[in-house]
Structure formats: C-alpha cells, structure tokens
Amino acid sequence: MKNLSVKKITAIVIGAAAALAVVALIAVFALRIDAAEARQIALDTAGGGEVIGQEISSEGLWNEYSYVIVNGSTWYDIEVSGFGRVTELESGTGTYRD
C-alpha cells in the first residue's frame, strides 16, 4: 500500500469536516420549529388558554420562543427552544407580573 502524502491527508480531513458541517446545518434547518409550532407547544403545556404575551429571540441559527399564557386564574410563563422542547416553565395564580 502506498503512503499518502501530507497534502492528500489534509485534503481528506478538510473534505470530511466540510461534509460534516453541511450535514449538521441541514439537520438544524430540518429539526427547528417555527413560531406557530412553538405557540402550540406552549398552549398544550398550559392546557390551553389565551396567549397574552410573546417574545422571539434569535439564538444563532434558531429562535427561542417565550409565551405568557393565562388559563382561568393561572398564568404560565413558558420558554420553548428552537427545536420544540420546553426549556422553562413558571406558573402562578392571580395577576401575572413580569
């Protein structure tokens, strides 16, 4: 078996890293959710109700969604990641205070 030159090995490593980066980027775009999906996840988490506040913040290639929901006498402050996972949940009764 012939020895590979340093240039060939370097090219192979760079090519593999580039291919991995492309696959990772495609996965990020395929798995992320939009605002409508995040809103539905938040409403489902709260058991329904009315969205009285929302905020979308960018975290690199995806967004993070925050919702304030009132369901009856209970308020919920819910954060949903760009991939659809509830990352923070706070609730209480009475009037919501930011």
Describe this structure in words.
This protein has 98 residues and is α+β, with helices and mostly antiparallel strands. The protein folds into two domains: 31 residues; 66 residues, Nuclear Transport Factor 2, Chain: A, CATH 3.10.450. It has two helices and four strands, in the order ααββββ. The chain has a four-stranded antiparallel β-sheet. β2 and β3 form a beta hairpin. The longest helix has 26 residues. The mean pLDDT is 88.
Q: How do the strands line up in the largest sheet?
A: 1-2-3-4
Q: How many strand segments?
A: 4
Question: Main beta sheet: strand number and arrangement?
Answer: 4 strands, antiparallel
What is the CATH third-level topology name of the largest domain?
Answer: Nuclear Transport Factor 2, Chain: A
Descriptors for this entry?
98 residues; 4-stranded antiparallel beta sheet; 39% helix
